[in-house]
Amino acid sequence: MNSRVLLFVYGTLKRGFPQHSLLGEDAVFRGAVRTEPSFGLVDCGGFPGLVEAEPGQAVRGELWEVSEALLPALDTYEGVPEGEYVRLRTAVQPSPPGEGTVWAYHYSRETGTDEEYGAEWTAAGLQR
Ligand code: PCA
Fold first, then answer.
1. What lines the ligand 1 site, CB under 6 Å?
2. pTM of the full structure
3. Mean per-residue pLDDT pooled into runs of 10, the chain (128 residues)
4. How many Å from the N-terminal Cα to the C-terminal Cα in the chain?
5. In testing the pocket of ligand 1, which one of 42, 75, 78, 86 has its CB within 8 Å of the most ligand atoms?
6. Which end of the chain has the smaller Cβ count within 10 Å, N or C?
């Protein structure tokens, strides 16, 4: 059985970015989406990290349907075992009809208090 899961990606896993192929050849693009307006992106040094922010923004990214069997490899790439990121259920807008869980990698390290948050990761880095 090939179970499928939904993943919100906002950084190097997006289409056209360096690690997109980790989503697998059978990944299906489900649309441009954004988080609830309570997040921000920090620059972790060439890649972004999603953190809860106050005041927050709606972070823009992509919703992809991928094979559940790929999650262990994605977790390893994102450093989930070492604690750099955690994979959490994350609400996105527009929300995919009839499907509960969307996963996203959240940055789990401490960030500066006067951090400049971005709302989108581009080839040029963080954008507001
Ligand atoms: N890759 C993951 C999380 C941060 C990153 O650079 C992503 O694209 O969602």
1. 9-14, 47-48, 78, 105
2. 0.94
3. 91 97 96 97 93 94 97 93 91 89 92 79 94
4. 41
5. 78
6. N
